[in-house]
Amino acid sequence: MIRHLLSGADLDAAAATQILDTAAEMATVAGREVKKLPALRGRTVVNLFYEDSTRTRISFEAAAKRLSADVINFSAKGSSVAKGESLKDTALTLQAMGADAVVVRHPASGAPHRLADWVAGSVVNAGDGTHEHPTQALLDAYTMRSRLGRLAGLRVAVVGDVLHSRVARSNVLLLSTLGAKVTLVGPPTLIPVDIAAALAPGTDVSYDLDVVLPDVDVVMMLRVQRERMNDSYFPSAREYARRYGLDGPRMRRLPEHAIVMHPGPMNRGMEITPEVADSPRSTIVEQVANGVSVRMAVLYLLLGGNKL
Hints:
Helices cover 38% and strands 15% of the residues. By secondary structure, the chain is an alpha/beta fold. It has a 5-stranded parallel sheet. It has a 4-stranded parallel sheet with strand order 2-1-3-4, with helices on both faces.
């Protein structure tokens, strides 16, 4: 049993499957006229976001509110953080306010782990630097299982800016635990040396997208995080799109059953074209909807009667 969710490595196959199964039950709530459960009534969930976010913050807020928790949204902008308050002092303030769970997104890798040392409640990592984003990996796994019926044995290509992607790291850890086979694809400058061996034995690396596409069940396109790039990792956006962008002709090289994923936000026309993003193969909108159910499951299991 765990108290926090900080990394994809925190979950073994049984715990991850429990979250996915619970999320499937939570998804039924969305179809009701009243989309609320009393499971976390009287509990307080704080969304502590030091980085801008749309999908993740709103998803966690919706998840907590559907479980009847009290939600406090904390933005670093316009708060004491802007005046120089440290993460520890902010944590102690939240602790004094009685936060039962803190959902944190922070530009520094490892910040949620430090926060977990300072608060009595549960800490959920909603993205830390270029480290991890475990609930994104969970909702991706949930989406794959919903569309394809299984996770064990799936062949998944994670394509693009692996170097700066916390989504890629969490997905490799979680999908490998659940029996999927992951291949990281991208230019050599955007795939860290030995990352595959460091994250999960059996993970492959390829620098040729066209070679990989015919043999995968899932292709997950990553956003090129130009805001984190201080150097030139590829010649131009046009050249990147030519080599590693998923367009219509490349999509048609996929097996007939294969699906296309993207964690968002997308650079349309760079890593993915509108034709692909809006096609029936795309699960991008489903991923957003599934994110609420998965985060409901995580909060319920961390704060409800059952522990992971």
